[in-house]
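Archive record:
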Amino acid sequence: MHHIAASPLRRVAVLVLAGAKPLDVGIPAQVFATRPSMPCEVRVCGAAPGLVSGGDGLAYAVSHGLEALAWADLVFVPGYRFPDREDPPRAVLDALIAAHDRGARLAAISTGAFALAATGLLNGKRATTHWHYTQALAAKHPQVQVDENVLFVDEGDVLTSAGAASGIDLCLHVLRSEFGVAASNHVARRLVAAPYRSGGQAQYVPRSVPEPHGARFAATRDWALHRLEEPLTLHLLARHAAVSTRTFSRHFLKETGHTPMQWVVRARIDRARELLEQSECGIEQIAAMVGLGTGANLRQHFQRILGTSPAEYRRTFTCGT
């Protein structure tokens, strides 16, 4: 099992509002639950301790009130039913603002974006929500730059995401930034989830002719992930998928948010990040192991994608045994 050494205990609050959606509540509560591989403490809270009526026939017995937001480093706001009808209570909005002012990151899942928008913290910033509610969010909060075509948006101190499954993508994204890619991939495997989907990937909005988005080239991506050290070209990937390069490129971009070769480079960088975290291999050796050839090439892509160097990344994320 992967263990994280020298990482501070992260305090995570999951704010359950009236009408909360069960998947939206469960995803961050499960992802960040305390275990040897996850140095976090999770507190599920509401406007007050006690029973909170939820959506989809469920209710939640929460142990904590808004004091949990004053305690937390990271606050998740799950989606809830009918977000465009009425804002959360003023005390809830004030507690979110106070948590943000204290330095906590606020992350909304799905329609939880309406609660963040009601605080004013999204004014002038990009945000998203479930595709069914993007127009309502833009109409209700015109100062928010609503992007209806992405899975999640990271504005640093405030993050928003689309519908339920994208809550997993958002949580994995936060994990990557907090604890490194090895920890994120460990959780993804535990959840049987895709290890990484770009925040810029399009939401799966219903079309008149449904397409099997997300799964069509999953086998080819898995095939490539096991051969990152080998030469991987667009032609080889398309041949494995048994389609033309043009068809492969078009649908791959829809599925992942990246062109095939952009995705390959990012997959190689992710593998390099794992090796930097978990091994003592040198930069040149790692570059060869992940198919990037030279240390200079690895450093160039690392700087472009992550804004740091491999050596600095290794110093930031260290793993125990």
